[in-house]
Amino acid sequence: MIYPSDFDKYIETSESESEREPTPPSLQAPAQAPAKALTPASVRAVASATSQVPTPASVQTVTSAPSQARTPPASQAHAPGSAQVVTSAASQSQSLASVNQTSASAPPQTRAIQSKKSDAAAAAKARSQSFQHVPVQKSRNTKRPRRKAAIEGELQRKSADAKSLNSPYLKLTPILSEADDDVEMKIDEECAVTPVQESTDMKDPVLHCMYCQDIGTYIWKCTNIKCGLLACVAKAQGDHGCIDATPDELTNVVSVDASTFRCPQCYRAAGTPLPYNVRGYSVRQEFTFRNYYPLLTIFLSWSGFGREYASDIVRRILMEHFHRVPSRLRLASRKLKAGNNRPSAFSPDFEWLKDIEYEGNLLVFIDTHSDTDTGNLVVSGNAADSHSVPVHELLHNYLGDNLRVAAQHIGKINTTTHAGPFIRGIVISSCGSSGRMTESVDRLKRLVEMNIFDFVFSFAGVSTVDFLVVPALSRFVENVFVYDMGIWAALEASFGQDKRALNSTPVMLSYAEYREVDDKHNTRERVVNTRLLAYSNFKDARPWGLDIYQCSNHSCRTRAHNMVFHADGKQFYGRKWLQTSMKTMCLKCGEKRKGIPAPTWIHQCDGENLGRVWYNWPLSISQRMEIGITH
Q: How far apart are CA 616 and CA 551, in angstroms?
């Protein structure tokens, strides 16, 4: 396998070898010479020479003539180095013509022998021409371009022939320059970053049904001004459509048209029957409304990871959702490693946001490790020797003033109801210490309180297992930036509904809510909350999601993993499940307690989230003392 980083070195080595070892006469292009009679000995010599596998030095001669009887393209007719190829092809044609003439004048028995020998020579020659894949390229260099084209042709041939599941596929690593505008990425070609748009004009989304996402035969818009939902409609038999507006079979009367169409949600909200049939299966409102605000997403991933699972999944999901409106999505990526903190690398991306007058959403996705003691984020080094910094230093070193300016402009727009609100979010996909340690949590909260971001997400357990939490994390991002759900509601609808993810780690969310103020200036007020979402599990020694619970015996104070928890007395279910009391037994000191109610500062989540609780984070001193923590 040849990688582009070693491509030039390989070519230079091949050229030097070709200069030291000239091409054997048997593989050189035949020169113009008088035709000679074809003898069995000469046929064997030609067959032996043409059946040999070409060496790197001879590949350019073999691939120089794609077809002996074909005129070269106009772009190659006057190219330096192409005259030799054309002359070689002409010489071969003349030689074959001379051979045919000589064979025609020979006796019949001789002609039969010569015909068999000619067929053998032609077959051998056809095998040697199997390397002809790349046409002659126009270049000033008469050696290197043809040799490079031959090698590229060989790579293309191997890749093209790989049709089975067991065939080897070639993956070429892109060559990265050292310029400041170089944004390092390590992703598959199928998940390429959205190309830089020459124009920043936001294009309207392709008209498509909000139920099935198809373009349909006809697309109607709900006439309710507050709704405007799009749906595909079948107007005749054979049409595809989630809404069946075909004429009545008996009266041939159409009950609805585009001017009177209202979506199923609007009819159901008004309590009136639908004048048409619904063919679509899913008509839930939260999965039909889309947030079409432009979105700039920046991925910062630690170079020490062998793969980028979390950022790759989120990137792919966003690209899939915005595939009908690609002009409204911009993705950028950069590695977290020593010497790679160049804020200027993201200047074109923030210019894109500036060109649309900052009327768009912003997401910063950080995928790295965190220090267990401090919660700081790793930015360089390796797993054995890493260097970590607080989150605000990481943002300053990699995004610089670009983030500060964009955050200020978006924050100013959000103060009024004329547009937006536009969401600025940061997701920290790392170990749980970043959302668990009090000092780290306070720093994350300040990013929201200072109106730099509208939400900060972080895990708050100990270790984070990607394949358990990333599906729920991608759903959270999807709920906020695609389905336009409220930030806390988006968390409850992702991690709150994923028991597997929440049972492995609690999550911290600091977020701002915008509320319209009833005044003459149409302003909004901003309220900041910081909460922890957890799963209550008595069997795993996490009462109300608190693995930091301690024994109440002052001389013991052992942690929750050394205690046994059970429900005590009457057990409640449904919306009253949190009223169930608890009893404990310490395995270390033997102390037993019964009838322990849930603290008043613990709240249950809404809806179907049984066992899910939330509370303000971090805990105050009085709250910590209530669960046995005295220091």
A: 22
